[in-house]
């Protein structure tokens, strides 16, 4: 039987009343003084639980990346924070969570029109849930980044408060906007540059501030320039080698292991692995619109490899596929990545996921977790993602295209020039602004 959804459409007055009730039910003071619960799970045990589901040879790589600094540990410890957030005060306002909204998961990426936008760029943990979870993870990341970079306590605190103020002001602005204006709102490169210029002008009133402003502006422009070059051609120069007139993916175990080496290294026959990946690729291609499918069909897969990605994701199944278009100088890199359960799923109620594209009904229970990325991507990035972003038919993997992007840079968070914090509109508001109703 098809489940029918009744969508509420409260008036502005009703929304205001609901917000006031939520504020009274959970005042700001209720968020003060967090302390570990008496039955708090052992953080190390939580990481070991995740290790048990990862590729065994990559577990040491994951640990090594997390051990670099307190900030990299925080990046890889989303499961620990999810457990710590469980049971904390919430106002009952459910949104599409990023689920891992730390500083480095904000960054620049290329839109379908090749414009650089600034927004969230990681949705591995996305799930509907209390908005407070994202805000607290974001704020904590500013504090940890500030400490990790040796900033003064006052500067670190100001940057953290500034990040939360930016979120509050962004949501206040969205509340006064029309529905379509909210949907198309985004933070483009020119807006970020204006923010930098304004912050630099303000900070330049002192000699120390002027120096910090100049350095932050230099870092931001360098990151933007780097993002413009991060495409498949750039990836080809880093990830491939020319052998007998044909490009193939380089071998750098354990970080990159080409299909040709999988049998010798892990006992996985090459033809079996290539067959599985090609099946996933064909299933993905069948989900595309006709024009997107015809575009992708002009590219031929020529090589594939297992590749380590990120920090917290290290050890999950992830592969890169090299495709060739017109000739060897016309490459396209795709990534297939395991869509494992969100770290929040242990602490939030199960979420029914409507089947997309007019299919009707709900995804089967075993597919629902794998399809949860779609709402996160749609809500979290504007304009809508380009083709080759996520494959609804690929039951275990998502497909992403190598496109210009750059991570959020903790170096922009500088004393006396808090550019990433209160100076700019908060990109976290985008996935949160569409769903602002209590349960």
Short summary:
With 439 residues, the protein is an alpha+beta fold. It contains 17 helices and 14 strands.
Task: Give your account of this protein's structure.
The strands form 5 sheets. A 5-stranded antiparallel beta sheet has the order 7-8-9-10-11, with helices on both faces. It has helices at residues 12-25, 43-51, 59-66, 70-76, 78-85, 131-148, 153-175, 179-184, 189-203, 207-229, 232-239, 259-266, 270-286, 290-296, 365-371, 373-380, 429-432, and strands at 94-97, 106-110, 116-120, 127-130, 240-243, 246-249, 256-258, 300-307, 318-324, 331-338, 397-401, 405-407, 413-414, 417-418. By secondary structure, the chain is of the alpha+beta class. It has 2 domains: 45-228 and 407-432, no CATH class; 232-401, no CATH class.
Q: Describe the global form.
A: globular
Please state the structural category.
alpha+beta
Classify the oligomer: single chain
- The side-by-side strand order for the widest beta sheet comes to 7-8-9-10-11
How much of the sequence lies in strands comes to 5-15%
Sequence stretches where pLDDT stays below 50 over 5 or more residues: 353-370, 385-425
Radius of gyration, in Å, reads 22 Å
User: Please, what is the average pLDDT?
Assistant: 77
């Amino acid at each position: 039987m098809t489940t029918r959804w009744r969508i509420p459409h409260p008036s502005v007055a009703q929304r205001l009343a609901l917000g006031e009730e939520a504020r009274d039910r959970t005042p700001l003071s209720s968020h003060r003084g967090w302390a570990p619960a008496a039955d708090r799970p052992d953080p190390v045990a939580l990481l070991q639980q995740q290790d048990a589901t990862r590729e065994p040879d990559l577990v040491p790589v994951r640990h090594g990346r997390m051990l670099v600094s307190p900030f990299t540990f925080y990046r890889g410890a989303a499961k620990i924070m999810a457990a710590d957030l469980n049971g904390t005060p919430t106002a009952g306002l459910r949104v599409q969570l990023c689920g891992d909204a730390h500083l480095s998961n904000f960054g620049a990426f290329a839109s379908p029109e090749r414009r650089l936008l600034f927004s969230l760029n990681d949705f591995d943990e996305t799930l509907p849930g209390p908005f407070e979870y994202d805000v607290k993870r974001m704020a904590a990341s500013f504090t940890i980044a500030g400490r990790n970079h040796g900033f003064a306590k006052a500067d670190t605190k100001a940057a953290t408060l500034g990040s939360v103020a930016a979120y509050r002001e962004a949501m206040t602005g969205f509340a006064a906007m029309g529905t379509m204006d909210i949907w198309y709102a985004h933070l483009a490169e020119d807006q970020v540059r204006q923010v930098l210029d304004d912050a630099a002008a303000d900070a330049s009133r002192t000699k120390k501030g002027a120096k910090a402003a100049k350095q932050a502006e230099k870092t931001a422009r360098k990151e933007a320039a780097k993002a413009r070059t991060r495409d498949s051609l750039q990836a080809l120069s880093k990830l491939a080698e020319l052998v007998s007139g044909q490009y193939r993916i380089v071998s750098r175990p354990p970080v990159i292991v080409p299909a040709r080496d999988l049998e010798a290294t892990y006992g996985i026959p090459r033809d079996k692995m290539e067959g599985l990946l090609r099946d996933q690729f064909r299933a993905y291609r069948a989900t595309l619109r006709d024009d997107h499918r015809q575009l992708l069909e002009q590219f031929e897969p020529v090589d594939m490899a297992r590749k380590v990605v990120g920090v917290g994701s290290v050890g999950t199944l992830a592969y890169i596929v090299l495709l060739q278009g017109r000739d060897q100088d016309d490459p396209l890199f795709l990534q297939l990545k395991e869509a494992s359960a969100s770290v929040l799923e242990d602490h939030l109620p199960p979420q029914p996921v409507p089947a997309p594209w007019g299919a009707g009904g709900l995804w089967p229970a075993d597919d629902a977790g794998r399809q949860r990325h779609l709402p996160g991507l749609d809500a979290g990035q504007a304009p809508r993602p380009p083709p080759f972003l996520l494959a609804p038919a690929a039951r275990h993997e998502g497909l992403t295209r190598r496109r210009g992007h750059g991570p959020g840079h903790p170096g922009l968070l500088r004393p006396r020039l808090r550019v990433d914090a209160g100076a700019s509109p908060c990109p976290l508001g985008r996935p949160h602004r569409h769903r602002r109703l209590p349960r």
